[in-house]
Records
---
Amino acid sequence: MVNHYQILIIGGGNAGLSVASQLLIKRSNLNIGIIDPSEKHYYQPAWTLVGAGIFDINKTVRNEKDVIPKNTTWIKEAVNEFMPNENKVRCSSGKEFTYNYLIVCPGIQLDWDKIKGLKDTLGKNNVSSNYSFQHAPYTWEMIENFKGGTAVFTNPTTPIKCGGAPHKIMYLAVDYWRKQGILDKCDVHYLSGATVIFGVKEYAATLTEVVKRGNIKVHFGVNVNEIDAANKTIFYEEKNQAGEVLRKSMKFDLCHAVPPQSAPDFIKNSILKDEANPFGYVEIDKYTMQHTRFPNVFALGDCTNAPCSKTGAAIRKQAPVVVTNLLAIMDNKKVTAQYDGYSACPIPTQYGKLMLAEFDYTNTPKMTFPINQAKPNWAMWILKTKVLPWLYWNKILKGTA
Ligand SMILES: Cc1cc2nc3c(=O)[nH]c(=O)nc-3n(C[C@H](O)[C@H](O)[C@H](O)COP(=O)(O)OP(=O)(O)OC[C@H]3O[C@@H](n4cnc5c(N)ncnc54)[C@H](O)[C@@H]3O)c2cc1C
């Protein structure tokens, strides 16, 4: 087996395949290997729509072999060690691969075990999570069958992929219950580790209205750490005004939970990680996407310490920067392309209406369309539910969008 590649990509998800395709469009003779153990490739942004009962889960998954760009080599292995001083990675099978240039993008790790009891009750007892391919359909089953009572939606204290997903599903659930005429029987709580509903004030203002209209009780700065499904009770920590941490609990009838997240363990345990980052992400220059200590290493997607919102939308802007800068160093030129922290969060505020929140590192709105995107509208709903899924499979993974 060939064990040396000019460019080795770790992770064949949204980031890995976008960047491989874009590299080959620029230079078709590149020798690229992509290491990824997964047989399947997922379009995760549609899991919110699956949980809301308007998207077929089977349309969010394809075989990895069918989406791997032609003229690359898929290596079905899992990396577990980086040796950047020797330009080498080792896989859990013991196999080693060497490279001239490395691109690291194995995504983010879902730390289900950090909420005691969650993993065992997922998919039953009216507890679900759209963060799982397996369980997103159960979210809809719960929402559709809910007849009233206490509904709890959680958001962890850690950074996560798609910061909007924990509350997107809440707005859709509330809208569904309103349309069923049962909202007055629903006591809806949002238990969030964040301190605000959204980090960009222009978009936060819209969501504050949506929360008010749905009579949603918001609890900020709380740390959900246990679910006792048998007793339908959720436990969380909350600071009082004196700064003391109090352990509180709430009975629930329905719970949508989002796990804490961090860098995959093999990144956390590696020399590539940012020592100062509590979640162990890969240390890169947040503008050039180049590793700060190993110049032939780049990283993008959910695994980096770039302080942007972790989304596929961010990857669309990061991938061309990685491609331009990687080709520059191959040509012994300076890296000049810069990523400005752009990210986007499409937030459905009700069925048929969506607010497309776009912003950069400075949390300044960066609206693409000539309308006020802070105002939810139907066109953005169509973009999210119809256009983006098509674009993902047909253009983004192929490097043409
Ligand atoms: C519920 C939900 C809703 C979302 N909504 C949106 C949205 O509306 N808009 C948006 O832009 N984004 C959204 N996202 C976020 C988006 O899906 C991610 O940001 C994006 O998939 C990240 O791409 P990535 O390539 O970094 O990671 P991934 O796409 O997760 O891919 C990582 C790849 O690395 C592989 N890998 C893992 N470990 C190893 C290893 N040891 N060795 C080699 N390979 C490995 C995995 O098998 C996987 O194929 C959402 C996510 C979720 C879960």
Note: Residues 119-258 form a domain with the FAD/NAD(P)-binding domain fold (CATH 3.50.50.60).
---
Amino acid sequence: MDFHLDSLLHLPFVTVLTCQQQEGFILLTLDFINEGISCPHCQTYTDNLHQIRPILVRDLSILGQGVYLKVPRRQFICSQCGKYPTEILNFIDRRRNYTKRYEEHIYEKVKELTVEQVSKNEQLSPEQVQNIFQRIAKQKKKDWGKPERLGLDEFSRQKGQGNLVTVLSNLDEGSLLEVIDSHKSEEIIEVLKQAPISIRENIKEVCVDMWGGFKKVITEVFPNALVVIDRFHVMKLVHKALNHLRLKLKLKGLKNRYLLLKNKVNLTEEEKKDLGELLRGYPCLSIAYELKEELRNIYENTRTVKEGLKKLKKWLRLARVFFGKTAETLELHLQNICNYFLNRTSNGVMEGLNNKIKLILRQSYGFSNFKFMREKLLACLFK
Ligand SMILES: [Zn+2]
């Protein structure tokens, strides 16, 4: 029909016969330039046409309008082998109603937006969008490479409570490796053991929080790995204990909380003055605050595991008095906490990734389909 429309469409051996507007869509009727094909069974060339059955295929939108292609599916007769081969088209997979590039486009869109948004934009049903996404996601190869340091963490699927998923990440690359619909050690082990043993044996360190189940997982799945308790989880626990003390003293208000929990080195001169005034009448809180700062100092300035153990044991003597149960928990995990000082491995590199995980989990709230959620997380965050 028009040379420019052909080059705009940019499909091999294809020419546009007609272009019509129909029910809010553009319909392009196509024809093929090649007269025959090479028989896929015996490789003999044939142009002996048996029949044509046109199919309707969705393609990329043009100028904001959805596009359908009317594609003549041609079946030939091969005089050599006697078979009836149907022409193979490299821009549509067999039995699909979308071009490959359209499916790829939907896949990329779902990575950015929710299924509902894509469904609305593309005038597809949410099921169609999910179906395309999962199909393409399956085709993408996921090679773990040879990571040495991993992180294990858990997230709540519904903010606030329950429904925990476990997340495995590659700390060397800052990449997401696996998402498991469980927070039971047995079930986590079952999923992770599917990874090749050569990869699992290569892991040197796994960074986790203080949940007891992780230790079991690491022993079973990563036999050569050291357990490292994440530095930020330790600090979070101490912050919580300090904050608890503040509330017991009825020092309410977000500003008080902020002054106590923020790193001292990051406080402005005025904030330091305010903090001084806050602590003046409360010697207990004062000591607890200094303990929090001291722990941060230990983390910043310790170079070996042995040195860390020594400093933390000393720190715990006083911390036991002021932080009670929290200090007991830390004592229980002391060796693994100090494994941090070997290579300073922490889940800190995953912070940006973790925020994205939380966002996607929140977006897919109401989605009962875990499989889809997992594919989306991996599509967005696996490098
Ligand atoms: Zn043949």
Note: The chain has a mean pLDDT of 93.
